Fold this protein.
Amino acid sequence: MDLELNITTLNIIILSIFIASIAIQLFYFLFFFLRITRKQNFQQNTEKPNVSVIICAKNEAHNIENFLPLILNQEYPNFEVVVVNDASYDETEEVLKKLELTYKHLRHTTIPENKFKHGKKLALTIGIKSAKYEHLVLTDADCYPLNKNWISTIIEQYTTNTEIVIGYGAYIPEKTFLNKLIRYDNFYNSIQFLGFAIAKLPYMGIGRNLSYKKSLFVKNKGFASHYGMLSGDDDLFVKETATKTNVAILNPSQNRTYTKAKQTFSYWYYQKLRHITTSVKYKFVHKILLSLEPINRTLFYSSLIIGAIFLCKIIIITAILFLLLKIYFFKKLLKNLAEKDLLLISLMYDVFSPIFYFILHLNKKFIKQKWN
């Protein structure tokens, strides 16, 4: 009798955890992620203020030669491109001087090599301070925009209260499994920070596709509060300066940048380690929401496995229906972000990512502070 009672109690606990985990996952999709697919969340301001595009480059001669003309040839009335050559020892300087002969709205400044170590934030600060205009658009030297309207679609999002515009930065598709894993991880992180921003809980942007006003940078004293950290020029700056009303997001189907993904798992792993070092400075509410989501997924799959033993039919049928619904949601989001070929990896990532990020957080204290 006691054994039957214990089994019944265990079944109730497992089923409760299973149902609660489904409810929480639905909350994240409906309240955060799927907001990205709604057109009414995007503005279309017709004003065309002057714009300064800021790019930092360290040994990026090849990328500058190939990608910078795609930015310099943007269809926008009046903009400048400021490139900060950060102590490069390749042909970056020569390539920039050559391009300046053709493009009069391009100018660059060079940080000479010195014995003092510095990060990307110094180069960004120099570029921003030298910018002529109030509206800044930031990207990286190894990135290129979707089309010639990249700057225009960013500036369209600026309304009376807007001071920050955040967008999607995609990776160039390749046929390898690692490329698909990196791209899906980037997709999932992006629907989080973009969805949170639409829900009035902005916590980050990415430096590959980011815009804000120069006056906001000055008011915040730049990156002063986290200057000593390797990362944070994008996410921590947005975290510090964003409010419920001053952030707009770019429609990923119309505006995104592309860059090449890491070619080995170890390089990608190091990149991820470097990025998560900033998470300790996130606001409490963001820490809770960002932690709860992967923990909840872990509980879902754990209760599914255990529950399938004791409550086979109920658990399995419910799980199949819910996973089919998740696949539908992912398909809709992947289409919106132009990543339709990643659907097959979605459920695998669902199981893999909580374990992967748990290992990352255990190892983040070993990260070395280096900008290259």
